[in-house]
Amino acid sequence: MNDLSPLRDPRAQRHEEQRRRILDAAIVCFARGGFHATGMQAVCAEAGMSPGALYRYFPSKDAIIEAIVERDRADIPQLLSPLLEADDVVGALIESARAFLVGNLRPDSLPLFPELYAEAVRNPAVAEIFGRCDDEVGEIVVRVIERGMALGQIDASLDAREAVRFLMALTDGVLMRILLEPAAEIEGLMPMYERSVRRFLAPGASS
Amino acid sequence: MNDLSPLRDPRAQRHEEQRRRILDAAIVCFARGGFHATGMQAVCAEAGMSPGALYRYFPSKDAIIEAIVERDRADIPQLLSPLLEADDVVGALIESARAFLVGNLRPDSLPLFPELYAEAVRNPAVAEIFGRCDDEVGEIVVRVIERGMALGQIDASLDAREAVRFLMALTDGVLMRILLEPAAEIEGLMPMYERSVRRFLAPGASS
User: Fold this and answer.
1) What is the ipTM of this complex?
2) Which of A82, A94, B119, B140 is 20 to 30 A from A55, comparing alpha carbons?
C-alpha cells in the first residue's frame, strides 16, 4: 500500500486510487471464484467500471495478479529490514513471522493464499512473479540467519539457505492450516511455532 | 487404491476399474485447469466416456472430488498404524512423514494439492471431506504423540493436540514449498524437517 507516499499531482493520485480500487475488487472476485474461473468482466462489475476504463489500468488478468503480488510484496522489505539490526536475532525473526501471519489473517484476502499457490503451479507468469517475491524475502532472511550465526545465536553448522527455505515452508504451512481448519487459531499455533523455530535454530545439542 | 482387494465378481471389478479410470482422468483435468474451471465435459473427454456413462458412476463434480480425497485417504491409516507400535516413536513419525511427502511427489497429482486447499476454502462440501480426512489423521497422530510422551521420548508438557496441528502444518508447508520453488528438493528439506521435528518434540531443555 502506498497510502503514505505523497502524490501531489491530482492526476497521479487519481490514477493510484483507481488502480487500488481495481485491485481490491479483483481480490474479492478471485477469493470468491479463483483466478482461473474469474473473468475480467466480473472484476469490472465488482469495481463498478467499464471494461474500457479498466483496461486502461490493466491490460490483462495476469497484469492484475502481478500487481496484487507486487502490492503485497511492497510491505515485506520494510517488515524484514529491522531484523538486520536486531540484538536478539531469533526473537526478532519470530516477531516478524507473527506480524506476517497476523497481517495475512484478513478474512477477505485469506482465501487468496492457496489460490495463489495453485495458480503459480499452473501459470508460468504467476510462478515467475511469485518466485521473484520469494527470492527477495529469502535473500534477506539468509542474511539475517548468517548474522545470527556470526553472533553465536544460531547454529553455524546449519546450511543457511536450506534452513531459510524450511522456515518459509513452516510459516506458509501454519498460515495454510489456520485457513483450512476451523479449530486452528494463531494463539494456539504461535507457541508451537516459537518453540519449533527457537529449538531448530539453537546452537549445540545433537540434531 | 484397492489394487489388492480381491474382487472376484467381474461386474464389481469392471465397476471398480471404470471408477478408477474416471478419477485418474479427473485428476489430470483438475491439475491442469483447477476444480472450479473444469467441467464434467472435460473429465468425460479425458476419460474417453460419454456423459451418460460417467454420470452412472459420479452424479456430480463434488462426488468426484470426494472420491479423490477418499482414495488418497484410504492409504493413510495403513501408513500411520505402525506408529502405534514403534520402539522409536519420533523416528517412526519422521519416516512416515517422509513416505507421505515422497508419495505425494508424483508430477501428475502434485498440482492438485494447493488446488484442494483453495477449493476447501471456497466450497463447504470439499471443506467437509477435507476436514474428515484431517481429523482421522490427527486422531492417530495424537495417540502416537501421547504414547511417545508415556515412553519418555516426547516432552510430556506439550499440548498434544496443538503439537499435532503444528506438525501437520509443517508437513503440508514442506510439500507446498517443493511444489512451488523449483530449487527446493526433498533431499535438501528432509534433514531440516528431521532436525526440526526431533528438537521440537524432545523432552527437557527450555523451549
Assistant:
1) 0.84
2) B119
How crowded is the C-beta side of B84, counted as CA atoms within 13 Å? 11
Average pLDDT over residues A98-115: 76
Q: What is the CATH number of the domain that holds A7?
A: 1.10.10.60
Q: Is B189 on the interface with A (CB under 8 A)?
A: yes
Burial class (CB in 10 A: 0-12, 13-18, 19+), B60: exposed
Predicted structure pTM score? 0.84
Residue B206: inside a domain: no
Q: Please indicate, yes or no, whether residues A68 and A54 belong to a single structural domain of this protein.
A: no
- Residues B107-136: pLDDT tens digits? 666 677 777 777 787 778 888 888 888 888
Q: Do B199 and A207 touch (CB under 8 A)?
A: yes
Cβ–Cβ under 8 Å, residues B37 and A42: no
Interface of A with B in 106-145 (CB under 8 A): 110-111, 114-115, 117-118, 120-122, 127, 130-131, 134
Domain range enclosing A54: 1-59
What are the pLDDT digits (tens) for B36-79?
778 899 999 999 999 999 999 999 988 898 888 778 777 777 77
CB of A174 within 8 A of CB of A104?
Answer: no
B33 near A CB under 8 A: yes
Mutate to test the interface with A, among B90, B101, B139, B170 (most CBs of A within 10 A): B170
Nearest to B207 among A34, A168, A199 (CB): A199
Residue B207, domain member (yes or no): no
